[in-house]
Amino acid sequence: VRDLTMHFDIHAGILRRKVGAVKAVDGLSFDIMQGETLGLVGESGCGKSTTGRAILRLYDPTAGSVRIGGVDVASLGSAELRRARPQMQMIFQDPQASLNPRMTVGSIIAEPLREHSDMDRDARDVRVRELMDAVGLNRAFASRYPHEFSGGQRQRIGIARALALNPRFIVCDEPIAALDVSIQAQVVNLLEDLQRDLGLTYLFISHDLSMVRHLANRVAVMYLGKIVELAPRDALYSDPRHPYTEALLSAVPVADPVVEATRQQIILEGDVPSPANPPKGCNFCTRCPKVMPVCHEVSPAFVEHMPGRFVACHLMDEEQDASILRENKND
Ligand code: SF4
Ligand code: MG
Q1: Is any atom of ligand 1 closer than 6 Å to the C-beta of 296?
Q2: From which domain of life does this come (predicted)?
Q3: Rounded Cα gap, residues 274 and 10, in angstroms
Q4: What single DSSP character describes residue 208?
Q5: 140, HSE (Cβ side, Cα atoms, 13 Å)
């Protein structure tokens, strides 16, 4: 993903003139490795879902490129996009809203096959049964309707539909957020099993940092339309470098009671600014506990400061300057 940008124009007045733009996603660059789970975290409204949808071309991005296996998905015409669609799919947050209540489960799962493959009816039925087995649904239920299933089962239906065309890459947009806590682990385990068995690559969008810690190989943190930090999972959780990541993690309870007893939650002042009117300089400068004068003037670049660790914060430059000074002194 390079410079991915998704701005929504704001129109006003009788002439509906453009008066501004909501910068929902503002110039993201990052890689997702084949076979990995990249977690994408941040508070609601920070642009996570829009990022997922722009990558899959459910929205047409304002700018930027998204290369999947050498093809720039962001610039495909509609016919080419149709051909590329099978390899990239989405699992939605609310299984209830994404399943047509008037279609049987069998025909919901078969829908992508009808649209994108030349399978005949018998072949589709065989494939639907295979998919139901793969997600742990009783195949005898193919003729039932979505309302006859529990939330967890409905999400399994959504997963089966997403798998129908053998995708390589799946955006999971808060796939368990709407489910009972008791069901969440089952669906997460299913997603992990499917990834291992089918060699899937996931972009896993969530505001649940504990869940992402369990699932992701690497984690990207978003704030107000930008990625502020991206790092391997353990490095991010044990040694966050961006002040926003620090604040997010400080709010997560720790299992170890000794550590938990000394956990200091960092409370951020103020609200998230509107993405239609982000602050000058660093997007986080209105709330950052470590803000410096330069932060109000210059937007920090998203830079790989250590191998595999990307941070957008002026503190990192200071740290680098300081370590260069130390090295020079030692010489
Ligand atoms: Fe805080 Fe400045 Fe870093 Fe932004 S650049 S996160 S305001 S220290
Ligand atoms: Mg969302």
Answers
A1: no
A2: Bacteria
A3: 13
A4: -
A5: 0
List C-alpha distances in Å: 293 to 226, 227, 270. 21, 22, 19
The Cα 255–Cα 243 span in angstroms is 23
Give the position, in ligand 1's atom list, of the atom nearest the Cα of 300: 5
**How many residues in total does the chain contain?**
331
Ligand 1 and 226: CB distance under 6 A: no
3-class DSSP state of 5? strand
With vertex at residue 166, the alpha carbon angle to CA 162 and CA 171, rounded to the nearest 5 degrees, is 45
- Atom of ligand 1 lying closest to residue 295 CA: 2
pLDDT tens-digit readout, 194-245? 999 999 999 999 999 999 999 999 999 999 999 999 999 999 999 999 999 9
263 phi/psi in degrees, rounded to 5: -65, 130
Read off the tokens for 67. 């290369």
For residue 168, report the phi and psi dihedrals to the nearest 5 degrees.
-100, -30
| Radius of gyration for the chain, computed over Cα atoms and rounded to the nearest angstrom | 22
CA of 307 to the centre of ligand 1 (A): 21
d(CA 91, CA 35): 17
Name the maximum alpha-carbon separation found in the chain: 76
pLDDT tens digits, residue range 119-176? 999 999 999 999 999 999 999 999 999 999 999 999 999 999 999 999 999 999 999 9
Q: Ion ligand 2 — residues with CB under 5 Å?
A: 49
Angle between helices 151-163 and 105-116 (to 10 degrees): 20
CATH number of 2-330: 3.40.50.300
Given the cut 0.85, state whether the ipTM is greater than it. Answer: yes
295 pocket-lining for ligand 1 (C-beta < 6 Å): yes
Residue with structure tokens 């409370």?
267
Pocket flag, ligand 1, residue 235 (CB < 6 Å): no
